[in-house]
Amino acid sequence: MLLLLLKANLGGVTCLMPMISISPTLPVNIRLWMASFPKHATSWPLIPATNYFVPSTRNQQGKQFSLSDAAYFVFHSPYNKLVQKSFARLVFSDFVRNASSIDEAAKEKLTPFSTLSGDESYQSRDLEKVSQQVAKPLYEAKVQPTTLVPKQVGNMYTASLYAAFVSLLHNKSSELAGKRVILFSYGSGLTATMFSLKLNEGQHPFSLSNIATVMDVSTKLKSRHEFSTVKFDETMQLMEHRYGGKDFVTSKDCSLLAPGTYYLTEVDSMYRRFYAKKPVDGACENGSHSNGH
Ligand SMILES: *[C@@H]1O[C@H](CO)[C@@H](O)[C@H](O)[C@H]1NC(C)=O
Ligand SMILES: *[C@@H]1O[C@H](CO)[C@@H](O)[C@H](O)[C@H]1NC(C)=O
Ligand SMILES: *[C@@H]1O[C@H](CO)[C@@H](O)[C@H](O)[C@H]1NC(C)=O
């Protein structure tokens, strides 16, 4: 669904993909660079990506891009605190560039930090606190609507950014027409990407409101099952035990699977995998395995 949406919107999109990457053949340098941001290993790719993104992006008046030029900011979200910190860092970097998004009151609060070097600014707890405080109203308006699914589901790694984007579509749907959204993606690798989408109100079935309806995020979140930690532990142990294993059949109980789901039924002695599909009308099939090797 999401892929279709991006495609449907590409026509009207300003899509910048500045990539930050370091040659994987230079592992020593990489380690040194990581080591220079010990406490901020998680936010280190944000600033280089921003530093690329901002000067290369002009708003409609030809001015340098600032936080005021986008309606929403969507972040890779291992956990929400990091999203808050990352956004606060963007606010500080707007301040350093004297961008229009920073009002007089905010300027006053951030001025004591204006002489910090880059490294010092990463180390400063006080700056972290003050910039989060200054960023709060902007965070509420531009970031909060993107946080629902990552907060509810936890870290999804690659999917995390797109789950945040889905949250925004769910929360704002057709209000997003004509709005610019900045997305920031990075993984545990060495690539960070900041890019910008401008959303258009597509035609049915690709209208923003229909996409939100079809995604049906509330129902999906509500249909999750709650388990005790003991059961969770048992499940994880089973998974660990079977990982890369052979010669086992899986539990016949597929009551928790959504209708239409393909599921593993068996791995035989030659590591061949067998699957079945839960019928769309509910009950589990029994026996008709297809070889999905
Ligand atoms: C910052 O921007 C304001 C107006 O946006 C301008 O009056 C002021 O001179 C700028 N300050 C610096 C240090 O560039
Ligand atoms: C959007 O999110 C806000 C909280 O961030 C919530 O109060 C509001 O009800 C949500 N709106 C929709 C349509 O989900
Ligand atoms: C599947 O078959 C087994 C025995 O062949 C039976 O005990 C079980 O109830 C069946 N499960 C379903 C969901 O039909």
UniProtKB/TrEMBL annotation:
GO annotation, biological process: acetyl-CoA metabolic process; farnesyl diphosphate biosynthetic process, mevalonate pathway
InterPro entries linked to this entry: HMG_CoA_synt_C_dom (IPR013746), Thiolase-like (IPR016039)
Keywords from the named record: Signal, Transferase
GO molecular function annotations of the record: hydroxymethylglutaryl-CoA synthase activity
Signal peptide feature range: 1-15
Keyword Signal in annotation: yes
Keyword Signal part of the UniProt annotation: yes
One Pfam entry name: HMG_CoA_synt_C
Coiled-coil regions listed: none
Hydroxymethylglutaryl-coenzyme A synthase C-terminal domain sequence ranges: 59-278
PANTHER family named in the record: 3-HYDROXY-3-METHYLGLUTARYL COENZYME A SYNTHASE, HYDROXYMETHYLGLUTARYL-COA SYNTHASE
Name of the protein in its database record: Hydroxymethylglutaryl-coenzyme A synthase C-terminal domain-containing protein
